[in-house]
């Protein structure tokens, strides 16, 4: 799969990733060669193979539904870029 | 003191030859005087380390010391440490002080170990040379013009240069074993689910596993004893009893069946590395083991499958870095989309961006089956090859990495060439198997690693197989010049 400039722009948008205009051709080349390498998988017929989600076929453990964590809001918000009165602040979304 | 193993340090601390405070001070001084040559640490814990060392000495005086009490170690900067910067090698987390400890860290703290600091690493553990770190590359202590491997390159270099007696690492595609090989230390990636991933910053959740980097297999056993075990806070942690990994060390290897991976002796393998592996196998035969050639016919699918699964999972995991709740935020965002895009665009390096984009593409509408499902199918074929092999052999061996340490900058501009540095290590991650790298010689004065892969939960056997080899060889005892 060879990707062009518009493919890279679309992927970067989906990933919410700002990339500069000058870097786009480089990413298009890199991503195309990575996908080409990945497509070596296509040489093997896997139609009858069940995809493997876990090497030991483990399943998610369940536990009793009860509160296990205490409120540590202040502690966790101490590392936030911008908070006020317990709320995370971001630029205005609704005018 | 710094030429000693954990086992020897424990004996000296017990006999009162020196205190934990003296030992910790000695390592902190070595870091201060030697690490400018290597850049193996991002953060040194200085004062906090001495406080913990004094507490360990008090514990010992009270007769409450365990086998690891008062012994210093370094943590890869991917493990959250309460109150100590946890950067994951990224500008994104350059300002991040974790509000809690990773389970690996809290377990080793409970065992009385003293954190010396946090080691350098490839950004978000994505790299095989430690050159993607926001904090600059780590140099290999055997030749500072070469890379230490990655992503746990700081941990491997610090242990090799004796700037820490041991360190933690994580291994998603070879990130413990490959740097261990390139720096001449012992590294163990346990079975997937053996060690808790809680508080270990996630890269590819179905592959990530934490383990020790040490001088010896005996030390790796000591650390794994403390690190391993079920953790209800990690939903993929497996609830199985943890054996005493030290108990079986020294057991006879007579009759051990070693499978040698035919496919790993390919044209990409350096001749000197192949010779070192052959010489190691000759040692094992002298120890009574039998060597048979085995085939893993789907092993060539490992790198392609990995570069779908790992980026796909990384693109999902790294979506949490949004500039809102923690980590880097861009200046003066105009709106929410600008906040997300510029914060992520400015704080992630090029390799992290590449992998996020590959993963985003592989998971996007219309491509999911062709890439992600296909890779998960290939993954089962790779796993089944190992399952079949372990019906007739006890352990599997081969080279850890295709060459000794390469030059800084040599592969930095070519992602695919860099990815092939992990060609022999990735399969064990895809299959979830435990695997080690042990020092097995030198090529052009650079260390070579022997890889030993075990069956699920067979870490005790792996450690003994490595230990017996280390009893009859001294590769693991060599110290790079300038760091003696």
Straight-line distance between termini of chain A: 42 Å
Report the largest inter-chain contact.
A-B, 52 and 73 residues
Derived from helix and strand composition plus strand pairing, the structural class of chain B reads alpha/beta
Number of strands of chain A: 2
Share of helix among residues of chain B? 25-40%
On the 0 to 100 scale, the average pLDDT of chain A is 93
Per the principal axes of the C-alpha atoms, what is the gross shape of chain A?
flat
At CATH level 2, the architecture of the domain at 5-43 in chain A is Orthogonal Bundle
Estimate the mean pLDDT confidence of chain B: 97
Q: Sheet bearing the most strands of chain B, described?
A: 8 strands, mixed
Strand content of chain B: 5-15%
Which quaternary structure do these chains form? heterodimer
Top CATH class of the domain at 5-43 in chain A? Mainly Alpha
The largest sheet of chain A has its strands arranged as: 1-2
Rg of chain B, Cα atoms, Å: 21 Å
How is the main sheet of chain A built? 2 strands, antiparallel
Q: What is the beta-strand fraction of chain A?
A: under 5%
The second-level CATH architecture of the domain at 6-251 in chain B is Alpha-Beta Complex
The top level CATH class name of the domain at 6-251 in chain B: Alpha Beta
EC number (chain A): 6.3.5.-
InterPro entries (chain A): Asp/Glu-ADT_sf_sub_c (IPR036113), GatC (IPR003837)
Organism (chain A): Thiohalophilus thiocyanatoxydans
Subunit structure (chain A): Heterotrimer of A, B and C subunits.
């Amino acid at each position: 799969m060879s990707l062009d400039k518009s493919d890279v722009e679309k992927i970067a948008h989906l990933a919410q990733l700002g990339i500069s205009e000058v870097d786009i051709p480089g990413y298009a080349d890199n991503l195309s060669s990575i996908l080409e390498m990945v497509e070596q998988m296509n040489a093997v017929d896997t139609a009858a193979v069940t995809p493997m989600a876990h090497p030991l076929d483990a399943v998610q453990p369940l536990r009793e539904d009860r509160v296990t964590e205490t409120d540590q809001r202040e502690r966790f918000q101490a590392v936030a870029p911008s908070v006020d009165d317990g709320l995370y602040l971001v630029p205005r979304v609704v005018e | 003191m710094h030429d000693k193993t954990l086992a020897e340090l424990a004996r000296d601390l017990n006999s009162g030859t020196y205190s934990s405070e003296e030992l910790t001070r000695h390592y902190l001084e070595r870091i201060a005087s030697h690490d400018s040559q290597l850049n193996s640490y991002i953060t040194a814990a200085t004062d906090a380390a001495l406080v913990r060392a004094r507490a360990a000495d008090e514990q010992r005086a009270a007769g409450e010391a365990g086998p690891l009490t008062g012994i210093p170690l370094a943590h890869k900067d991917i493990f959250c440490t309460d109150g100590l910067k946890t950067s994951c090698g990224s500008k994104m987390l350059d300002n991040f002080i974790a509000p809690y400890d990773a389970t690996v860290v809290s377990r080793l703290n409970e065992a009385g170990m003293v954190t010396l600091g946090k080691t350098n690493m490839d950004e978000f553990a994505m790299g095989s040379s430690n050159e993607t770190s926001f904090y600059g590359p780590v140099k290999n202590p055997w030749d500072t013009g070469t890379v230490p491997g990655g992503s746990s390159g700081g941990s491997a270099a610090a242990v090799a240069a004796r700037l820490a007696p041991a360190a933690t690492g994580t291994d998603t595609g070879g990130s413990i074993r490959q740097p261990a090989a390139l720096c001449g230390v012992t590294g163990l990636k346990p079975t997937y689910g053996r060690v808790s991933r809680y508080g270990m910053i996630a890269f590819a959740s179905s592959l990530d596993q934490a383990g020790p980097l040490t001088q010896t297999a005996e030390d790796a056993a000591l650390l794994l004893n403390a690190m391993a075990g079920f953790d209800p806070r990690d939903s993929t942690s497996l609830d199985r009893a943890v054996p005493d990994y030290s108990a079986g060390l020294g057991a006879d290897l007579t009759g051990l069946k070693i499978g040698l991976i035919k496919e790993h002796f390919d044209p990409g393998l350096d001749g000197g590395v192949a010779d070192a592996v052959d010489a190691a196998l000759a040692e094992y035969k002298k120890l009574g083991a039998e060597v048979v050639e085995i085939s893993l016919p789907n092993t060539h699918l490992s790198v392609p499958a990995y570069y779908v699964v790992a980026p796909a999972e990384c693109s999902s995991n790294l979506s949490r870095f949004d500039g809102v709740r923690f980590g880097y935020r861009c200046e003066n965002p105009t709106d929410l989309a600008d906040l997300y895009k510029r914060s992520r665009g400015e704080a992630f390096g090029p390799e992290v961006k590449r992998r996020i984009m590959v993963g985003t593409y592989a998971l996007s509408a219309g491509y999911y089956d062709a890439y992600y499902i296909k890779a998960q199918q290939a993954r089962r074929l790779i796993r089944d090859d190992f399952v079949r092999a372990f019906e007739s052999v006890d352990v599997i061996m081969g080279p850890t990495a295709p060459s000794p340490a390469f030059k800084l900058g040599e592969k930095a501009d070519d992602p695919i060439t860099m990815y092939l540095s992990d060609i022999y290590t990735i399969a064990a991650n895809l299959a979830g198997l435990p695997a080690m790298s042990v020092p097995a010689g030198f090529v052009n004065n650079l260390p070579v690693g022997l890889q030993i892969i075990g069956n699920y939960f067979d870490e005790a056997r792996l450690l003994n197989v490595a230990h017996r080899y280390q009893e009859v060889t001294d590769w693991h005892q060599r110290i790079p010049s300038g760091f003696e």
